[in-house]
C-alpha cells in the first residue's frame, strides 16, 4: 500500500505535531514512540516487483553498514508460506543485524485468529501482536422505532440523520437461480437491482470469500444507499468506507435489526456519520486479525513476544494520495490504519527510547526489558480478552501489552547470548555447516552440543518459557539467568533481594529453586531452575507466569506448556 512506510515510520519516531486528524476524526496531537530518534528508511517493496528476498537482505546489509540501533519491519510472509530460517530472508537478515547489536522488531502477521499463524518467530526477533486502543470510531444505525444500534466504521455520509430510508435484508432481494447464501452475503450478481435500489441493505458476512469492500461496491452499483454489515470480528476494526453510508454491527445487534425489519410493513432506518469515542472499555483487546501462537517454526519458543496498539492508528500519510481523499477535499496528511504493521513500530519506538537511555544494552536485554514489564490487564483492571470476549492467552499477546515506561527501568533482565542463539540453531536441527552459512561469525571452536534435541530449545535464556510435548509423568526442568540492571538507574538499587511468586493453573505443579535471588552489584547474574510436573495428563495447553519482585521492580516471565495428549497438533511443512 502506498503510504504504508510513511505511516509506520511516523508511528515509530515522528515528532510531535499538534491539531492533526483524518478529516476531523481522531483530532489531537500526534507523536511517535521515540521522536528524538533519527530515521533511515530502506525501500524493499516496489509496485512492479513486490518484495524480493535479495532486496530484503540488501536492506539489512545497508542498515548494518549505516550503524542503526533498531530495525522495524512491518511485513512478513503469509503463515501458509512460512519458511525455514535458512531460506527466510527476514530471519537471516535479522540474525546478522542482532549479531551487530541491532534490535530487530517485526510484525507477527495478520492471519489471525487462526492458531499457529504467527510469523517472524525466530528467537532473535522481537515479534509483535496487535491490540485495540480505547478509542473507537462509531457509525450508528437508527431504526424506525428509534432504537439506536452501535456500529463501527469510518464514513462521512451526508444522508439524513432521521430514519427515513427503506431498509431490507439482502436475502429478500435474491435473484432467481442464485444460491441464498450468496445473496444474504451481498455477493456480486446475487441481488435484484429493482429491489435493492434506494434502500439500506443488511448484509451477512458469514462463510463468504468476498471482502466487505466488494459488498459495498455491489450494493452501490445496484443503487443501494447504504450497507449494514453483520460481522463480530470486523466489528472491532473501523474500515474506511469514504462517503458511502456503511457500518459494521455485531451478530447480536444484527438479530435486533432483522427482528425490526420483520416486525413492520415499511421498515426504515438511517446510518449516521462517524464520530470518535474515547475512553472506550474494555481496552486493550486482541485484534481479530492478529496472528496467534503457538509457533511451529520454531517449537519451544513462545511467540508472539509482545502486543501493542494496532487498530485504528492515526499516523502521518503521503500528501499526494488520491485513494484516501474525500471528494472535494485536499489529500489527507494523516490517515487511520489497522494491522500488526501498525503495532510493530509502537514497540520499535519504545526499543529506540530504551536504547537511548541505555546505549550499552544488547538487543536481547532490550527485548527482555520490554517483555518482562508488559501488562496483562485492561483498563477495567480485568484480564485482557480476545475479540470474542474470552480470556486472552500468551498465544495471543505473548508477555502482554507493552508498557511505555516500564522497559526504561526493568530491574532485572534475561540476556540471550550469541551462544544461546547458536545452540538454538543446533537444537532446531541445523548442523554446523549450515550454521556457518547463516552466521556472519561464530566463536572459534564452537560445535553443536552432543545432545541437540528440539526439547532443549526451552532451555535457552529467553524471557518467556515454552514447552511442547510436555510429559506429565517425567516432568520438565528449565534454567534461567537474570542480570541486575536496576543499579544503573539508581545506585542504591544495586543491592537487593527478589522474591518469587508463581501463577500456575490448576493441575500443574510449578516449583522454583531458589525462591530468592540476592544481588549486591550492577551486572551481577543469578540463576534459578523451574520444575514443571502434573499428576494427570493436561487436557489442553496451559499458561502461567513466574514473577520476581523486590518491592520496587516486578519482572514477569510468562510460560506456555502443551501436552502430548492435550495440545492441538500444528505442523507446517
UniProtKB/TrEMBL annotation:
<dbReference type="InterPro" id="IPR041469">
    <property type="entry name" value="Subtilisin-like_FN3"/>
</dbReference>
<dbReference type="Pfam" id="PF17766">
    <property type="entry name" value="fn3_6"/>
</dbReference>
<keyword id="KW-0645">Protease</keyword>
<feature type="domain" description="Subtilisin-like protease fibronectin type-III">
    <location>
        <begin position="459"/>
        <end position="560"/>
    </location>
</feature>
<comment type="similarity">
    <text>Belongs to the peptidase S8 family.</text>
</comment>
<dbReference type="InterPro" id="IPR023828">
    <property type="entry name" value="Peptidase_S8_Ser-AS"/>
</dbReference>
<dbReference type="GO" id="GO:0006508">
    <property type="term" value="P:proteolysis"/>
</dbReference>
<dbReference type="InterPro" id="IPR015500">
    <property type="entry name" value="Peptidase_S8_subtilisin-rel"/>
</dbReference>
<dbReference type="InterPro" id="IPR045051">
    <property type="entry name" value="SBT"/>
</dbReference>
<dbReference type="InterPro" id="IPR022398">
    <property type="entry name" value="Peptidase_S8_His-AS"/>
</dbReference>
<dbReference type="Pfam" id="PF00082">
    <property type="entry name" value="Peptidase_S8"/>
</dbReference>
<protein>
    <recommendedName>
        <fullName>Subtilisin-like protease fibronectin type-III domain-containing protein</fullName>
    </recommendedName>
</protein>
<dbReference type="InterPro" id="IPR036852">
    <property type="entry name" value="Peptidase_S8/S53_dom_sf"/>
</dbReference>
<dbReference type="InterPro" id="IPR000209">
    <property type="entry name" value="Peptidase_S8/S53_dom"/>
</dbReference>
<feature type="domain" description="Peptidase S8/S53">
    <location>
        <begin position="2"/>
        <end position="400"/>
    </location>
</feature>
<keyword id="KW-0378">Hydrolase</keyword>
<dbReference type="GO" id="GO:0004252">
    <property type="term" value="F:serine-type endopeptidase activity"/>
</dbReference>
<keyword id="KW-0732">Signal</keyword>
<keyword id="KW-0720">Serine protease</keyword>
Amino acid at each position: 500500500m502506498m503510504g504504508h512506510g510513511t505511516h509506520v515510520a511516523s508511528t515509530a519516531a515522528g515528532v510531535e505535531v499538534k491539531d492533526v486528524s483524518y478529516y476531523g476524526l481522531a483530532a489531537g496531537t500526534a507523536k511517535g514512540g521515540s521522536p528524538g530518534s533519527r530515521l533511515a528508511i530502506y525501500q524493499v517493496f516496489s509496485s512492479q516487483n513486490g518484495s524480493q528476498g535479495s532486496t530484503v537482505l540488501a536492506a539489512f546489509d545497508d542498515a548494518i553498514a549505516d550503524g542503526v540501533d533498531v530495525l522495524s519491519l512491518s511485513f512478513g510472509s503469509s503463515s501458509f508460506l512460512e519458511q525455514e530460517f535458512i531460506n527466510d530472508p527476514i530471519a537471516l537478515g535479522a540474525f546478522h543485524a542482532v549479531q551487530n547489536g541491532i534490535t530487530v522488531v517485526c510484525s507477527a502477521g495478520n492471519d489471525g485468529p487462526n492458531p499457529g499463524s504467527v510469523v517472524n518467530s525466530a528467537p532473535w526477533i522481537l515479534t509483535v501482536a496487535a491490540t485495540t486502543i480505547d478509542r473507537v470510531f462509531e457509525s450508528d444505525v437508527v431504526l424506525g422505532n428509534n432504537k439506536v444500534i452501535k456500529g463501527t466504521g469510518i464514513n462521512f455520509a451526508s444522508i439524513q440523520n432521521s430514519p427515513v430510508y427503506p431498509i431490507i435484508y439482502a436475502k429478500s432481494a435474491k435473484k432467481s437461480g442464485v444460491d441464498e447464501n450468496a445473496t444474504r452475503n451481498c455477493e456480486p450478481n446475487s441481488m435484484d437491482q429493482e429491489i435493492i435500489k434506494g434502500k439500506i441493505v443488511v448484509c451477512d458476512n458469514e462463510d463468504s470469500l468476498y471482502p466487505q469492500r466488494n459488498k459495498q461496491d455491489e450494493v452501490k452499483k445496484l443503487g443501494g444507499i447504504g450497507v449494514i454489515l453483520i460481522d463480530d470480528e470486523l466489528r472491532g476494526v473501523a474500515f474506511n468506507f469514504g462517503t458511502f453510508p456503511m457500518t459494521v454491527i455485531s451478530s447480536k445487534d444484527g438479530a435486533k435489526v432483522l427482528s425490526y425489519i420483520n416486525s413492520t410493513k415499511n421498515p426504515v432506518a438511517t446510518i449516521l456519520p462517524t464520530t470518535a469515542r474515547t475512553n472506550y472499555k474494555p481496552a486493550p483487546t486482541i485484534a481479530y486479525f492478529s496472528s496467534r501462537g503457538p509457533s511451529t517454526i520454531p517449537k519451544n519458543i513462545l511467540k508472539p513476544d509482545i502486543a501493542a496498539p494496532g487498530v485504528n492508528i492515526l499516523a502521518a500519510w503521503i500528501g499526494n494520495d488520491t485513494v484516501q481523499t474525500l471528494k472535494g477535499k485536499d489529500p489527507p496528511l494523516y490517515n487511520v490504519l489497522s494491522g500488526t504493521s501498525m503495532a510493530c513500530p509502537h514497540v520499535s519506538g519504545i526499543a529506540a527510547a530504551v536504547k537511548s537511555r541505555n546505549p550499552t544494552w544488547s538487543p536481547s536485554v532490550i527485548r527482555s526489558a520490554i517483555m518482562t514489564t508488559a501488562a496483562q490487564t485492561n483498563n477495567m483492571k480485568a484480564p485482557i480478552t480476545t475479540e470474542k470476549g474470552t480470556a486472552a492467552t500468551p498465544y495471543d499477546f505473548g508477555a502482554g501489552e507493552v508498557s511505555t515506561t516500564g522497559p526504561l527501568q526493568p530491574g532485572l533482565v534475561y540476556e540471550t547470548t550469541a551462544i544461546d542463539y547458536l545452540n538454538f540453531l543446533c537444537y532446531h536441527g541445523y548442523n554446523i555447516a549450515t550454521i556457518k552459512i547463516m552466521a556472519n561469525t561464530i566463536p572459534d571452536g564452537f560445535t553443536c552440543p552432543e545432545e541437540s534435541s528440539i526439547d532443549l530449545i526451552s532451555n535457552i535464556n529467553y524471557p518467556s518459557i515454552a514447552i511442547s510435548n510436555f510429559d506429565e509423568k517425567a516432568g520438565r526442568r528449565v534454567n534461567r539467568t537474570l542480570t541486575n540492571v536496576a543499579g544503573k538507574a539508581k545506585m542504591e538499587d544495586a543491592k537487593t533481594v527478589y522474591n518469587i511468586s508463581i501463577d500456575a493453573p490448576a493441575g500443574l505443579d510449578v516449583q522454583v529453586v531458589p525462591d530468592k535471588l540476592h544481588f549486591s552489584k550492577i551486572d551481577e547474574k543469578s540463576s534459578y531452575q523451574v520444575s514443571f510436573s502434573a499428576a494427570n495428563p493436561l487436557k489442553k495447553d496451559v499458561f502461567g507466569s513466574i514473577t520476581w519482585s523486590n518491592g520496587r521492580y516486578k519482572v514477569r516471565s510468562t510460560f506456555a506448556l502443551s501436552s502430548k495428549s492435550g495440545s492441538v497438533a500444528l505442523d507446517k511443512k
